[in-house]
Amino acid sequence: MKNRLKLLRAERDWSQGELATRLGISRQSVNAIETGKYDPSLPLAFRIADLFALQIEDIFLRDEEGAGE
Amino acid sequence: MKNRLKLLRAERDWSQGELATRLGISRQSVNAIETGKYDPSLPLAFRIADLFALQIEDIFLRDEEGAGE
DNA sequence: ACATAATGTCAAGTTTCATTGACATAGACG
DNA sequence: CGTCTATGTCAATGAAACTTGACATTATGT
Q1: Whole-prediction pTM
Q2: In this protein, which residues make up the domain named HTH cro/C1-type (chains A, B) (predicted)?
Q3: What domain count does chain B have?
Q4: What is the separation of C-alpha A27 from the centre of its chain, rounded to a whole number of angstroms?
C-alpha cells in the first residue's frame, strides 16, 4: 500500500510535525506512514483525505497501482 | 464510521460466511464490521471496495454522513 | 563552528483490528 | 420434534496501528 502523503505535504510546505498536528496524531506516526512502515487506520485515512480534500483512492494506492504507467 | 456492507451483501444474496471467504477473513470479522464493533483496516477496506467494484467512500461513511438527508 | 529545524529510527507501552473456538438464538425444512 | 443454516456474541490470543520519549543524521542559516 503506497501513498502520496509526502508529495501532498510538500505541495503545502508542511513539516511532518505540522501535518501530525492537523491530523491529531504524532509526528512519528506521520513519518511511519510516509515511509511505509504501516498503513493508517480507515478513520485516519478519512481524516487525511478530508484534510487534502481528496478521495482516499487518490492518496492511497494498492501496491503495483500507478507503477505500470 | 458507518458502512453499507450488510446492504451490499444482501443485494448479492451472500451470507456473512460467504463474504468472509471472498475477502479472506473470518465470519466473525465480517459480523463485527457490519454491526459496527470496529472499522476494517485500510487494506481490508480496499479489498472490500474491489469486491463490490465501488469506491471506499461509497461503502464506508463518516459518522453523520448521509444522516441529514 | 554553532544552533536550529526537519527527518529518520528505535524501544516500550496502549489501543484497535482480526483471529479461532465456543455457545445461544432464530428461521426454514424434514 | 430434530436438524441445518445464518447470525450475534463472548473470551482469549495475536498482529497491526499509534503513542511518548529519546537519540542520530541531515540540511539551513548565522
Answers
A1: 0.92
A2: 5-59
A3: 1
A4: 12
